Amino acid sequence: MPWQATDADIQSFFSGINIAPGGIALALSRIGRRNGEALIRLTDGDQRNLALRKHKHHMGQRYIEIYTALGRDFITVAGGK
Predict the structure, then answer these.
(1) Which InterPro entries match (predicted)?
(2) For site-directed labelling of 3, which of 10, 14, 63, 71 has its Cα 20 to 30 A away?
(3) In whole angstroms, what is the distance from residue 13 CA to residue 55 CA?
(4) Superfamily assignment of 7-78 in CATH?
(5) More confident position, 80 or 37
């Protein structure tokens, strides 16, 4: 995704798909800058399947790749251990 994408941009991209409260984690590079990746926590498996249908759709000029991830991946990106 564009490195400057915000939570609001991501919510707009996934319009109609239920993102869990606090469910957007923007990944940062080792120097603390956004790296163009994010993890999204959805409310259930049905929402995950809807989100996967957005694979290779565009956000602005960039196409977005969508993959499944584990809960621990979200925690790591969101700042947990």
Answers:
(1) ESRP (IPR050666), Nucleotide-bd_a/b_plait_sf (IPR012677), RBD_domain_sf (IPR035979)
(2) 71
(3) 11
(4) RRM (RNA recognition motif) domain (3.30.70.330)
(5) 37
